[in-house]
Structures are given as structure tokens and as C-alpha cells.
Amino acid sequence: MKEVAGGCCAAKGFSASGVHAGVRRNTSKKDLALIFADLDCTAAALYTTNLVQAAPLHVTKRNLAGGTARAVIANSGNANACTPDGEETAREICAALAKELAVRPDEIIINSTGVIGVPLPAGIVTDAIPALVKGLSRDGSDAAAAAIMTTDTCDKQAAAQVEIAGKTVTVGGIAKGSGMIHPNMATMLAFITTDAAITSEMLHAALRESNRVTYSRISVDGDTSTNDMLAALASGLAGNPPIGQKDDGYRAFLEALNHVNGKLARSIARDGEGATKLVSCLVRGADSEECAEKLAKGVISSSLVKAMMYGADANFGRVLCALGYSGAPFDPRRVDVSFLSSGESVAVCKDGMGLPFDEILARRVLSRDEVQILVDLRGGAFEAEAFGCDLTEKYVEINGAYRT
Amino acid sequence: MKEVAGGCCAAKGFSASGVHAGVRRNTSKKDLALIFADLDCTAAALYTTNLVQAAPLHVTKRNLAGGTARAVIANSGNANACTPDGEETAREICAALAKELAVRPDEIIINSTGVIGVPLPAGIVTDAIPALVKGLSRDGSDAAAAAIMTTDTCDKQAAAQVEIAGKTVTVGGIAKGSGMIHPNMATMLAFITTDAAITSEMLHAALRESNRVTYSRISVDGDTSTNDMLAALASGLAGNPPIGQKDDGYRAFLEALNHVNGKLARSIARDGEGATKLVSCLVRGADSEECAEKLAKGVISSSLVKAMMYGADANFGRVLCALGYSGAPFDPRRVDVSFLSSGESVAVCKDGMGLPFDEILARRVLSRDEVQILVDLRGGAFEAEAFGCDLTEKYVEINGAYRT
User: Fold this and answer.
1) Which three-class secondary structure state does DSSP give residue B281?
2) For the whole model, what pTM was predicted?
């Protein structure tokens, strides 16, 4: 498997575009993204488990009932959630886009991201559709990735290639963060394209498997959004024998999908609102993967661990405390903890007890922009890694006046 | 029932003291507290559900096996948690105190609060015990309450009286916050004294009932501490007919206990690390109390709701979002939300949809130092209220360099 450039246009058969429609006022930032497939694609999506779901998710669910799609449209600046006419707005946008692209409205995946509870005027979006479609390009991934950003400070793109039965299969995608991030069986907006030939059932299965070990293992602030969506389109243009069951081809495809989703997920965590660093927690020696995952997520979700990471203060008691309340079973008297970055490591806890350590080394390790917390339970053979970020004054600043 | 002064010395038979022992260096702040009963008390305690539990909790559990106690000792500045010799240290302190007070070591409730994983030298505490005991006074609640403070900005004391069978029964107590607060079946340090005559079984039952509707309904940062403890001593000096079952006397006692615990719990939430205001969420119209509680706690625990409260930004979508991922069932299309403070209210959501509202009124309501989020599910007849605080830059500042 190898990484390639091109984001959501890396796979054969996809073009993309991004424009400023005006959903976000007082700025010229792009706020409307489009991904378009040259031909009918198999398609699948996962959605937020939040009981409050945004209107476009309901529309997309119905559109994807047949397992195929042609296009993805998404705006930033307004979540189209918790307003009376949200579904009508989403359907209007789909209808206008379908007309412009000469496809059916039910071939469109639609989503929105931004403020909740404020009506999204359909006209602002539909007026921009001609320019959006005109802008479609094989190099359009940058524009589309930029257009779905909200408080993100950088775009999120990834692509990778694998061989399946002698054919090169490409998987690519774009995603956005960067607050209200605590995916639960789904994620923030992430749109994946691939030229693999794969049934919508297998695509859905691969999304579920991949999501479990990527987006479901990140957290910025513990808040699961109303608009989370992970959607994928597969054009089949790679010419591989169609994937219709969990065979070697499926596993190769899943490997590339995991690579792309993993990279996008980590970039969401790293760009968490106000964050200065990517913080990961690898839990080893657990009795099950589920247990390791629960513990790792407990640690990277803790406000106290996050604030300590910001201050580069090696207060490992915060880590033990978070492990202890995570809800997963382990023996507190066998836990070893160390902090790692750039090949340096500092052991701070052995058998659940604090170790004397070099404070200068610890501060250097914790001050880098990627820090791993390594927890060894010295029990079973399972492990899992979760990704988050530090908690900074900037997070508070951003969210103290999000609407204004 | 009426509120009275005196904190943990309000009830008959108790004196208290607080001194600077030197556990906290570079400061002259009091860091060692003592509550002493004139005679044998029935006693009970609840402990953190964190799998990682501090050494003094293990010692206290053994000491309370017989259901009686004479004294409570607690230091701040060091949690005596996750160090090799923690239990030995706790036992040494109990032994020294027992000798000075002429009681048995197993009649002592002991706890610590502060940094985790750093050894607590027993000598620092034991050297201060003579002065601590000498300082015991019927007016000592202020000193004891001050000595258990860590990042708390004010002490937490409360006391109330009820009549039981013609006798006046007093319940009082002290508590401390103010970070790592997300009590789960237990609380941060809270020590309750009463002159009620009550068996240790009924005292334990009352603690459990009261904790469920007080400390278990607050959150500052979602982190459940390794040292949480809610302990109570009952001297019996009020002369009421001994409470040995859940009769009218028990219910009157529980009312006073709930009042004291409720006040202490709210003062912990209000004084959350870095907080500028008390934020409560009252959920009404739920199908069960459990459901209402889960939703209310979900809202006050959300980082986004907390940051929005700090910024006085009426972004009600954050509230709906938090309700939606709380894990409790409700119908999102029937939810009404309003914000209240000082007799003013602003309705922001009806039937799950945003309402137009007066932004100036909303900012005024949210800018006060006590704000209630009222959620009406318009379903069943159950309700619950949870208490938290806002999330500020100060929280990050405090916890970025907690040890230094």
C-alpha cells in the first residue's frame, strides 16, 4: 500500500469543486463543496448516533436506500439542524443540484455543518450551484476540502493505493473537524471516494469495520454532533474483480480504507479546536480490544489529561485516574505508564505507582506536537490506540462565542 | 427545617480544627483538618467508584467495618494515591492521631486530596498533630473547611435543623471541590456530622439516598477522582428516639441531610476550577427520574455548553446536541428549551426547533452568576436537576501546570 496525492479526486472517476456561496457571511471563505462521479457508484454511509439528527441526514438516508449515488454536496456555516423546514431545504438543494448535473435528486448525498437551530435559506445554496458545478475539476479536492471547514485551521485530505488481483485500487477522501468531536459509530463529515469495484453491502461493511478503528477512536471534546456522517462512493473504474464478499480483495480494500480514514481521523484530532498538539494513548496488554479501546478513549477524553498535555506537565496521576473511571476492568497494581515523542520516552509509573523521573526530559517529551501516552496493563494480548488533542484557552475562546 | 451556622460543628458533640502542617510547601495555607467527636459515633461512608483508589480510602474502609468512629483527619496538597507506601503512611497518621486523642486507631476516618503519585511523608503530618489537636474548638469548622481546600476559591460549609419526635436534630458538614469533579456513587471530600441518634445501617442508607440526588448530580470536568469520599458521624446527643428503620424520623433526618448535601454540592459546582457561574439544568416531563437525570447531567457536562455559558452565547443547539447523545430516550420533536436567571427567562427552542428570541435579553440572562437551563420533554411526570459550571480559560491555566 502506498500513499498518493489527490484527496477525494485521487480515485478514477471523480471530480470536485468548492465555492463561496454566502452561507458564511462576513467572509469570502469557501462554504459549499461538491464531489461528482462520472458514472453511477455503489454507495454507503454511517450516521451520528445522536438522537437529535440534522435534516440532511434524513434526506441522505432515504436517497441511499438503493445503495447507489452520483454526488456529494455539503455546506459549512450552518448545520441545517433543529429548524422547521430543514428537510424541505435539503430536498430543494438536491433537486437544484440534480437538475444542473443531469442526475436524479435521489442520487445525491447531502450534509451541512455549522451552527444548529438557525434556518438555512435554500436560495443561498441553490444560487451558487451553477458556479459550483462549473468549477468541477480532477484537481478539485483542495477546494472541496476547504469548503467543508468550519473552525478547522487546515484541510483534511488523504489517499492511498493497493493492488487487488493485479489492479491498482485507489481510496481517497476529505474530512472536517474540529469541535463537537466524539464520534460514536460515526464521525464528523468525511467523504470517501474509491475506484474499487465493490457492492454497496461490502462497502457498508468496510465502512463499519474501518470506522470502528479510526473515527470512533478520536475525541476532541466529548460532544457527539448532530451532523456526523461518513459516506463513500465507489466508481468501479479500477477494473478489479468486483468485491462481493469478505475475501482477500475486501481485506486489501479495507487496508487502504483504514489508511485513509486513519489519516483523516488523526488530522481531525490534531486540529481539534484550539489544540496545539496531537495526543494519542496506546493501551497494551489488555484482556480484550474493547477494554483497551475504552481505556485509551477514557484517557484522551479526560479534560485534566488534555490540560496537562497543554501545559507539558507530566502529572501521570491524571492518566491513572482516567483509566480508573473509564469503566473497563484492569488491575491498577500492574499498570505501567510512559510518555513518548520523537523517539524519546520517559517512564513515570510502574505497577501503578509513581516513579522518580527526569523532569527536564519529561517536559521536552511533552512539549512536542505529537505525544503518545503508552499504558501497559501487563495482562492479555490486546491493544488499541485512541487519538485526541490538548485543551487550551483557545478552545474556550472559540466556543464562548461560536455564533458571533 | 431551617438553616443554621456552624458547619461541621453545628451538631452537638463535635469540635474541629485546621492547621498548616507543611504538606503544601511555599504557602502558609492550612492543609490539615480534624473533626473530633466527644463520644463514640455511629458512622458510614461512601467511596469513589474509580478503580484506582487512594490509600487512605482502603484504611478508612477497614476502620469503618464496625460502623463506629470518633474522628476525621484529612490533608490537602497530596492525595496519598498511587505511591508504594501510601497505606503505611495513612496507618501511621491514624496511630499518631489516636495516641494524641486517646482513642483507638481504627476509630479514625482518614483521607487526603491533592497531587496523585507523589509520596506523602507521614512525618510532615504527624509532627503537626499535637498542634492540630490543641486547636480543637466548637468554632473550628471554618479552620477545618479551609484546610481541605485545594484549588477551591472559597470554603464549603452547611448546616440545617429538623425536629424529630420533639427533639431538635442538627446535620452539618464541610466539603471541598473543585477539579476532578464528576462524582459517581460518591463525591469529593465531604464530611457530615449530626447529633441524631441513628444506627450506622440507617446512616449509610441515608447517605446513599442523599448522595444520589446531590453529589451525584454535579460535574465540573467529567473526571471522577481517586479520593472521593462522603463520610458521616452521628453522635446521638440530640436525644431523639434512635432511628433504626425508614420511618418518619428517618425521613426528617434525610430531609436535613439532603439540604446540607445539596448546598455543599452546589457550592462545589459553583466553585469549579476557573468557573465564573453556577449552571444548572432542570429536565422536566421525562418518562423516569433516571432518564431526566441522565439528560440533565449530559447537558451540564458538555464542554460546548459550558464554554457557551462562559461566553453568554445563547447557542441552544449545544443543549439539544448534548441531550441527543446523553444516552437517555426522548422525542427530539417535543423538546422545549429556555434559559432562566433572576426571574427572567428566554425561550429558545419549541418542539425541537429554534425560536427567534431577543438576543439582548438572552445575553443578560446568561451573563448572571446563576443560570438555569430548563428542558421540558413534554412526556412523563418525572424531573431531575443537575449542577455544573462554565468552562473558562482559567480552568486550562490551573490544570496546565497543576503540580508546579
Assistant:
1) strand
2) 0.86
